[in-house]
Design brief:
With 337 residues, this protein is α+β, with helices and mostly antiparallel strands. It has three domains: 2-52 and 171-193; 58-164, OB fold (Dihydrolipoamide Acetyltransferase, E2P); 198-336, no CATH class. It has seven helices and 20 strands. It has helices at residues 2-18, 28-52, 62-67, 118-125, 138-144, 171-193, 327-336, and strands spanning 22-23, 26-27, 58-59, 75-79, 81-84, 98-105, 108-115, 128-135, 150-151, 154-164, 198-201, 221-229, 232-248, 254-261, 264-266, 269-272, 275-282, 288-296, 302-310, 317-324. Helix 1 (2-18) crosses helix 6 and helix 2 packs antiparallel against helix 6 (171-193). It is elongated.
Length: 337
């Protein structure tokens, strides 16, 4: 489990940083997640296509290819009377890098496209072609529109074409890519769902007596939660794993204070200065649901605690996670809460 939490922790830390970088108002982390999700969807589609076309090509008539929607993206062999298709004006191939044929069978006709080579021309003229059934896109259809759409009295269907010599994708390759893409998508989604704070609860620690010596130095710590800039409740932001110190406020509340530069920049220029002290102010006697655990911001976990409290700046309930260098520091911090 440590490895899984560690991987999520590494991704969460990188993703949190990228979430602060925006392109056209969109966080880079969102763009990466969306891109990976789309690519994973493409891999799934290719895997389904490869699985559906396992084994030798199916024999099919032109009518079956044109009428059965399940034939789209299928690996098939069609036979019939073959006719060379040429452009109306030039008499040459309508597509420079392809040879175009029409196969007529059972009173229906469809296009066959193959690479422009004498060997392929002769093979198809023998009356049989094997390949993948693909939709004819607009650009290809525009190129084919310069040809006569009729073979004798038969209209050539321009919705799909047989791409001769094209074979189905390898299922092994797309299985690997689908697994990798799915894993990355799940890990990024888990990090975002956790709000980038990867916390693993541990068994409850025994109660800790409050600290008796207020002069005892505060332990070094790193905090994750919603910070307020210069005690201004309108300027708040969520930060991950920031070095902080525990301080006593004049109001009797305790605060975690960190020096953070969260200034907003555009084209290298600072547009919103947010460089200074950010704090989380914990209303006195509001700490609850204290839970020991481990926080992962990398592969090596750190002792941490998660607890609820009332934010003295807003009066609303909140939650934060604080991690430490050592177990003794965690116990010392708990004693001071």
């Amino acid at each position: 489990m440590d490895l899984i939490y560690g991987v999520i922790g590494v991704v969460a830390r990188r993703t949190e940083r990228l979430s602060r970088i925006r392109h056209n108002g969109v966080p880079v982390s969102w763009a990466i997640w969306f891109t990976v999700a789309v690519l994973t969807g493409v891999c799934l589609f290719k895997l389904a296509e490869a699985t559906r076309n396992l084994g030798p090509a199916r024999r099919a008539t032109v009518a079956q290819v044109l009428q059965d929607r399940g034939m789209l993206d299928a690996h098939v062999t069609v036979s019939g009377d073959m006719y060379t298709v040429t452009a109306r004006d030039t008499g040459a191939d309508p597509i420079p890098d392809r040879s175009v044929f029409a196969v007529v069978n059972g009173g229906q006709a469809m296009y066959i496209l193959t690479v422009n080579s004498p060997a392929d021309r002769e093979a198809i003229k023998s009356g049989q072609a094997t390949g993948m059934v693909r939709t004819i896109d607009k650009q290809l259809k525009d190129q084919l529109d310069v040809t006569p759409p009729m073979i004798g009295d038969t209209l050539v269907d321009d919705r799909v074409a047989l791409m001769a010599n094209e074979t189905p994708p390898s299922p092994i390759l797309w299985i690997i890519l689908t697994i990798l893409g799915s894993a990355v998508t799940i890990v990024i989604s888990a990090a975002v769902f956790m709000r980038y704070v990867v916390f693993r609860p541990q068994a409850a620690s025994p109660p800790i007596e409050p600290a008796n010596d207020p002069a005892e130095p505060n332990p070094p710590l790193r905090a994750s939660g919603i910070f307020t800039f210069n005690e201004n409740p309108k300027l708040r932001s969520r930060f991950l794993d920031m070095p902080a110190v525990l301080a006593d406020m004049a109001s009797g509340d305790k605060a975690l204070v960190s020096n953070i530069d969260a200034s907003v920049r555009f084209m290298g220029q600072v547009t919103k200065k947010r460089d200074g002290l950010w704090s989380i102010v914990i209303k006195s006697d509001s700490v609850c649901d204290v839970e020991d655990g481990l926080q992962y911001t990398g592969f090596k976990p750190r002792p941490a605690i998660r607890f609820g409290f009332v934010d003295a700046m807003t009066g609303k309930e909140s939650e934060m996670v604080v991690n430490f260098d050592a177990e003794a520091d965690r116990r010392a911090f708990r004693a001071k809460l």
